[in-house]
Specification:
Blueprint lengths: L18 H13 L14 E7 L5 E8 L10 E13 L8 E5 L3 E6 L9 E4 L12 E11 L5 E8 L3 E5 L2 E6 L2 E2 L1 E2 L4
Parallel strand pairs: 1-9
Antiparallel strand pairs: 1-2, 2-6, 2-12, 3-4, 3-5, 3-7, 7-8, 7-11, 9-10
Amino acid sequence: MHVSLRLNAQGRRRGPVTAVALALAAAAVISGPALAAQPPWYASSVRCYYEADGTGGRLLAGIVVTPPDLYADYGTQTVGWRFVVRRSRNWDVGPWKITYRSPIQQAEATVNQPGAFAAMSVGVRVPNVEDKSAIRYRVTLKMLWYASDGSVSSRVRHRMLNLKWYANGSLKGEADYCPAILDTSP
């Protein structure tokens, strides 16, 4: 299930808005100065790290995800996040199989202060198949807002699009996925 997200000028979630109000707001933004609002996952990033595979190539070894900026809907509220890794063995065609779900981190947030979270990571074991170049990994963030009774009051899911590839400490590329193996040809 994918939930759409509406943001206020500070980049925070807000309640339902009518189509007329959205049209008026869009017109004001287009005619006025651009707002600096960003969705909560905009602060998050994904880095894929590669190590030598013994044949001159670079094999995916780990994925590190930095947390999103999650604010409370009201007062002080518990918020949480996790990430999910999916793998396709057939380029971008799929099927996409979940290979990892991180634990959920929770923190207290206010309407002015996001929850204090830490980055999370996972080691990756690339399947031992003949054509590793067909294997792709994607990362999805799951963000949660909790009611006072501890139940989830709302959630947002976002597939990350700018995954950065690092080998030997330097950026080697980026895309909406991380390949299992980096091409090291000149």
